[in-house]
């Protein structure tokens, strides 16, 4: 890790100046702190404020910027103004990431920063991530230092623990749009629904949790160890989620799976 860390600092220092895309997760938080160490006030963290970003994630981003000792800038993404994002097909992440990083690149150029960095690591290569195409298209201005320097998720978490960052063991938390089934248009109301639903279920489910939005059906994904606690509060959960506007509430017996909405793509290939 010591050698990897020095390699990362050298990579960041070579940029001269840098904007770090900060989501509030462990990857971007470690990258922000490393950039602050390597570049001082020539590094700045930036978070795209959007209906797709939960209140808790925005709060974490602000807290991690303070912990990293880096200046934090908020930009309004206006994601729901883009019909390509609202349509919510399998390329949604591509359009979202492209729009956000284009805004960051413009801001960087206008404010004298040479590069924009994002926190993807080697483990991200195995998942369906259309957003990575947008990153590639914006190269060489947008860079992925963890990938360049051979960092894995385990490396990032180890460094976060060494620094005592509060997000060191934080579970992955994709944006709220990832909860909405493909083909169901994104609206502010639906995003508010899933954010509120997860907050209501969270007290009864330790570990990873998602409430997937399938129009009038809420599909709860929890880790199998949490099933008993969820079922013990079944009536309360159903009542509260129906009060949010869902007609049906179900517990997915398959348990939490990263990116489970992508499973529909293989079942209905070509549908989107």
Explain the overall architecture.
By secondary structure, this protein is of the alpha/beta class. The protein is 45% helix and 14% strand. It has 12 helices and 8 strands. The protein has helices at 2-15, 26-39, 55-68, 83-86, 92-110, 131-137, 145-148, 153-163, 188-201, 227-232, 234-243, 263-267, and strands at 18-21, 43-49, 71-76, 115-117, 142-143, 209-214, 217-222, 248-251. The strands form 2 sheets. The protein has a 5-stranded parallel β-sheet with strand order 3-2-1-4-5, sandwiched between helices. Helix 2 runs parallel beside helix 3 (55-68) and helix 2 crosses helix 8. The chain starts with a helix and ends in a 5-residue tail after the last helix.
Which segments are poorly predicted (pLDDT under 50) over 5 or more consecutive residues?
A: none
**Averaging pLDDT over every residue, what do you get?**
93
**Structural class computed from helices and strand pairing:** alpha/beta
Q: How do the strands line up in the largest sheet?
A: 3-2-1-4-5
Q: Strand-and-helix sequence, N→C? A: HEHEHEHHEHEHHHEEHHEH
| DSSP E strands, number | 8
Binned, the helix content reads 40-55%
First-last Cα distance: 43 Å
Shape category = globular
Topology record:
Elements: H1 2-15, E1 18-21, H2 26-39, E2 43-49, H3 55-68, E3 71-76, H4 83-86, H5 92-110, E4 115-117, H6 131-137, E5 142-143, H7 145-148, H8 153-163, H9 188-201, E6 209-214, E7 217-222, H10 227-232, H11 234-243, E8 248-251, H12 263-267
Parallel strand pairs: 1-2, 1-4, 2-3, 4-5, 7-8
Antiparallel strand pairs: 6-7
